[in-house]
Amino acid sequence: MKAVLRFVAVGMVSVAVAQVGGSAEKESTAKKEELHGLPLLVAEDFEKGADRWEPMDAKSWRLSPGRGGKVYDQFVKQGSYKPPHRSPFNFALLEDMTVGDFALTAKVRSTVADYGHRDACVIFGYQDKSHFYYVHFGKKTDDHANQVFIVNDKPRTKISTKTTEGTPWDDDWHDVKIIRRVKEGTIEVYFDDMKTPVMTATDKTFTWGQIGIGTFDDTSQWDDVKLYGEKVDRQVAYLRLPADEQRTIGHDAPESALRHVPQITRVMETTYDEYKRVKDRIRAEERRADYLYFLVEETRHVPFANGTGAYVAVMCRYKAHLPRGER
């Protein structure tokens, strides 16, 4: 699935907004059913593979026999992925699916030897490695276990308003459910009992994002993952500004001789090879999630009504999807 981005730049403030298209083929498994008023977007039983999942460390995940078929098996506790802040070490994200309101259900089995922090995690509101929520189903509750957490450019912070004494892990399969309502900021977490939440939280920091499954630093198996929700445009933005429009200097200075010169330009999609080709002309660059954003200064001639003209420098903005080995 291809993401097409737009870019906003006002003075020194910049925001990128991405629009995500759909793939009917990948979503053909989703039947017309609802949960909590939300339509089914994805139904994943892993019988045909796990191609639409992107592990943080691919060598830590595999398909294994289980539950009469195949299950998604995170069999390595800590792989090559090192999070920038204290947060889960091993999880897989559902690719090409960004949601606002959602309900997620899944079957999960903890496959690690029993101990106090034995865990499994559900990731949601994932925007990049430094901005997301996660639920930690921990064996014994404390400030760092069996809670709802936010990762917001610093080590994870507990935001739970309710939890239990702990998650009763054994070697059997269990049912989990997460319900997220963006407008209200509510988060409800269920374990086996699908009517009474074991954890709750309220937070409005992240209003969209991907979902993921895994553990903090243990091992686990997953099956029958279903995602119900409202699919939304991915907004790669750290400032919450409105979507941009193609503005010119004339928007703010209609009498200016340069009124037709672009003041705000959108991001144009290019390739990583093109990024390397123009690298000596790049004025600034920044990595966000799996994309590299960069500015290239270009000179343009602006004709005036009296027959003269001027040359002005315009910063053209591009983004390139990083190859897997460069992320």
Structure description:
The structure is a single chain. The chain is an all-beta fold. The protein has one helix and 23 strands. The protein has one helix at 272-277, and strands at residues 3-10, 13-20, 34-35, 38-44, 53-55, 61-66, 69-74, 90-94, 99-110, 119-128, 131-138, 148-152, 157-158, 160-162, 174-181, 186-191, 199-202, 210-215, 220-231, 268-270, 282-288, 291-303, 309-321. Strand 1 (3-10) and strand 2 form a beta hairpin. The two termini are 18 Å apart.
Unreliable parts: 1-31, 236-245
Quickly give the CATH architecture of the largest domain: Sandwich
- Under CATH at level 1, the class of the largest domain stands as Mainly Beta
Number of strands: 23
Terminal residue distance = 18 Å
Which percent range fits the helix content? Answer: under 10%
Apparent shape? elongated
CATH domain fold name of the largest domain: Jelly Rolls
Oligomeric state: single chain
Average predicted confidence as pLDDT: 83
Class computed from helices, strands and strand pairing: mainly beta
What pattern of helices and strands is seen along the backbone? EEEEEEEEEEEEEEEEEEEEHEEE
Number of self-contained structural domains: 2
Largest sheet composition: 10 strands, antiparallel
As a whole number of angstroms, the C-alpha radius of gyration is: 23 Å
Strand content: over 45%
How many helix segments?
1
